[in-house]
Write a structure and sequence with these properties.
Strand order of the largest sheet: 5-4-3-6-8-7
Number of domains: 1
CATH topology: Rossmann fold
Distance between the termini: 64 Å
Shape: globular
CATH architecture: 3-Layer(aba) Sandwich
Order of helices and strands: EEHEHEHEHEHHEEHHHEEH
Strand content: 5-15%
Number of helices: 10
Oligomer: single chain
CATH class: Alpha Beta
Largest sheet: 6 strands, mixed
Bound molecules: iron/sulfur cluster, zinc ion
Length: about 290
């Protein structure tokens, strides 16, 4: 097998192309850099907070950003999930050492919380609210310009698939690679891996010796996004559909700027469209469910 670009020995195949190590890495880094500049996500002077979960996507993203010369700090949310979170944290610490970037760990336990079903909300929905809130809080309190997440084309098309099934326009509106923000205490969110596949991130992480957490979250089986990802891979084993579909969506969906009016959460003061933010509402429900 020869690399399609330079003729050397190929080590990986994606998008119908055989790549050698060097050509793949060049392609990968260029894709990240092009996505950042095309969507004006941030620049080399920006203070960038990168959310890391212990998986290959966020590890590859942080490694690539550091290599490209961005000023990054890693943020990991310890989710207080028994038999899972401690193991993941150990891996994240090793990743940070290899990447050579400062790491901050935010512990959910500090807020008296853990991931579980709360009322009608399944664990993954509760987990999502916790992560988004704590990322934004940390970024605001430490004057970061932007929050970066390792969402890939596989994630974004799975979210899109799910949003189309329930015609959830608000979610669709959030699926751009960059979500700017002019709301006080609500940081912009960037997804520089929006045009890269899961398997490309996994291969980049492997090439660069990044350890990956193999602990499985006990709630993973209830995750709809994981299920939709699998389904999309089954109908699109050659990857081209997901890439084209996302681009068609970006070119045709009538994206609108945030039109909802925000106010301050009456409990914590962070922006919300209701009287209390989702985090504070879940926290209250959590305390109610915990009270005998
Ligand atoms: Fe959170 Fe669900 Fe992922 Fe577990 S599987 S870490 S609960 S989003
Ligand atoms: Zn609040």
């Amino acid at each position: 097998m020869q690399c399609k670009l330079c003729g050397r020995e190929a080590v990986f195949k994606s998008r119908g192309i055989r790549w050698c190590r060097d050509c793949f890495e060049k392609f990968y880094l260029k894709k990240v850099e092009d996505t950042i500049s095309k969507y004006r996500m941030f620049n080399k002077d920006s203070k960038v907070c990168v959310a890391v979960s212990g998986g290959e996507d966020s590890a590859a993203l942080a490694h690539a950003l550091k290599r490209l010369g961005y000023n990054i700090t890693l943020l990991h949310i310890h989710l207080n999930i028994e038999g899972y979170s401690d193991q993941v944290l150990e891996i994240v610490e090793k990743q940070a050492e290899i990447i050579g970037a400062p790491l901050h760990v935010e512990y959910l336990e500090k807020y008296g919380l853990k991931v579980q079903r709360v009322g009608y909300r399944p664990p993954c929905a509760v987990c999502g609210v916790f992560k988004r809130y704590l990322m934004n809080k940390f970024a605001c309190e430490n004057n970061f310009d932007v929050i970066c997440t390792g969402h890939t084309i596989d994630d974004l098309t799975a979210f899109l698939f799910s949003a189309i099934l329930t015609w959830d326009i608000d979610t669709m509106n959030k699926l751009r690679p960059f979500q700017p923000s002019s709301v006080e205490n609500l940081k912009p969110k960037a997804k520089p891996l929006a045009f890269l596949l899961d398997k490309e991130n996994a291969f980049y992480a492997k090439l660069n010796g990044l350890p990956i957490a193999d602990a499985k979250c006990p709630f993973e089986l209830t995750s709809k996004v994981k299920l939709y990802k699998k389904r999309l891979r089954r109908i699109d084993p050659r990857e081209s559909f997901r890439l084209r579909w996302y681009k068609v969506f970006l070119n045709n969906f009538p994206f609108r700027e945030e039109s909802r009016s925000f106010k301050k959460c009456m409990v914590c003061g962070f922006p919300t469209v209701a009287d209390k933010c989702s985090f504070c509402r879940i926290k209250e429900l959590f305390q109610r469910y915990q009270t005998p």
